[in-house]
Each structure stands twice: as C-alpha cells, then as structure tokens.
Amino acid sequence: MNKKEIIARLETENSNQLFNEADKIREACLGNEVHIRGIIEFSNYCCRSCLYCGLRKENKGISRYRMSGEEIIKLANEITNFGLKTVVLQSGDDFAFTQKTLSTIINKIKKENPGVAITLSVGERPPDDYKAFKDAGADRYLLKHETANPELYQRLHPGQSLKRRLEILEYLKKLNYQVGAGNIVGLRGQALEDLADDILLMKMLDVDMAGIGPFIPQRDTPLSDFPSGPLKLTLKVLALTRILTKNSHLPATTALATLDSAQGQLSGFKAGCNVIMPDFTPEYYRKDYVIYDHKRRVDLERAKELIFKARRLISADRGDSLKCRKPQEACVCR
Ligand code: SF4
Which protein residues are within 6 Å of ligand 1, measured from CB? Predict the structure, then answer.
C-alpha cells in the first residue's frame, strides 16, 4: 500500500471493512491470544517540555514522585505472581534514575523473576545507558516517535528532533532490543498525510511493537484547549498499521479506554490489537501520572474481562517479537 492508498483508506467511510481486514491479518499472523503486560509508572519527573504532556517539567500542577528501587521491585514481583510474563517500567525522562540505579533494578527484577521480560519506556538517554540496561537484562524498549512530520515534531518537542529519535530507534535495534515506536493521532496541525507517514515509518522500521493512541488534552499544558483526537480515526490508524506491519505487537491502549470506557479497547481488539497493559501503579502515585486528563484505570481484572468480551484468549507466553531478524540471505520466511 502506498501513501496515496493509505490516505484514501484513512478517509474511507467504510471503516468496518478496514477493521475486518486488519482483524483477519491479526488472526493469521498472531492467533487469538492477547498478551497482558503489567505496567509500573515509577517516576513522573521529566526534564522535557512536550507541549501535550502533563508530566512536562514546567507543569507545577502535579505532585512529583519517584518510587524507590524496593517499591519497583516489589511491584514487579507482584506482577509476575499474577502469572504475567512482562513487566513494563515507564517514567518521564528522569535522570535521577542513573544508569547504575536503573541497571540494578532491572538486574534484581530479572534475578528474582527468572524468565520475565522487561520493557523499558524511559525516554531519551545517552547511548551507553541503553547498552547498560540491555546488559542488565532489559529485553524491549518503547520509544514512540509521536509524529513522523519533522516540523510538527519540533514544534511539539522543544529542544528535541525527530532525526535524533529515529537514530535512537535504530541504535536500540542494533543492541538487540525488541523495539517499539508509535504515534499520537489527532494532534493540532496534523494532516492525514502525516498519519500515513507514521504508518509507513513503522512499516519501514519493521517495529516489534507500536503504541498508537489518540491525543487527549491535559489541563496544565499549552494544548489544554484542543479537542481529543477522534476514536474512529485512531482505530483506522491501528488497523492500517496491523495491515502493513503484519505481526507487530499492538496494544489496545488505555487512551482508547479514556475516550470510550466501555468500547474503546474492545474496538481496538477488533481493529487488530493483540496486547493490553493493565496498570499496577498504586493509586497514591497514579493520580499524579497525568500525561493526559481523565486517564482510565485499567487493572488486571478489567484487562481479563475485556479479553473475555472480545472472545479472545489470555496468552501464557511472554509475547516476544515475531519478527525474523536473520539477515535477508539466511532467512527462509521472507
Ligand atoms: S511525553 Fe515523555 S518526554 Fe515528553 S514531557 Fe511527557 S513524559 Fe516527558
């Protein structure tokens, strides 16, 4: 599918046909199992100023917190005690968690929970941090590219660039991380063309996973007055990403539930999603992890209920990448 065709499909009124197509590809490439990944939002400090995000450093309207290493490890152990095979460690870009501190935490989680996969979502760090975290046992890294439009990226992320972001994603791949990108749908100043570029970029990067969600305003940010991105358009982007990337892991994000608590994530499953990420952050911290407003709580019970309602199965494996990483000449599956 080329860019023109993607735009035409983003414009289509007949979205059910698109969702069915994506769902069939999901079933053929990934089966009926849904992977549950437990997420811990361990720090809401951030040194960046992303215009849409409530964790931006200029926001004085939230109480900042950092969990201790012991708290993080305890929560990770809780997640694996529930039988989950992936722990996602997420924070703002918080350098108080030094290379050594975070490596020690990763290492302890791996030692205490043999076989668990760790996904990091801790933003832009110096290259040797990524290497140290990998050596400590991290398996996956999620660094959303947010938008493939370089000018829009620059406007939304003062002091950062899309070029740098993409360099990091390539570097993470070289380090043998399973790598995730992803975008925001419905940003101010974003055209359908930009969304087509997002999808093509994720295809080109051959992402192991992708986090795709709507823009949702946060009241203490410069974009507080802008409306949320449309649910239907977000689902179309998800479906097209499924169609183009085939077997990448795609979560039905909490942001979908925030737009429509009853149907949002279920619609995500119908449009090609195969992952859900319940939140294990304790309430006294979670209330201040306000990337956007009115964030829904999706706990493990709710995640299981949604999988059941979607007539899907809970996966018992880690849900590692299904991408073939052999060199082209050694690969028999392409
Ligand atoms: S989007 Fe990430 S890097 Fe940007 S302000 Fe929010 S937490 Fe920080």
Answer: 46, 48, 50, 53, 55-56, 92-93, 123, 291
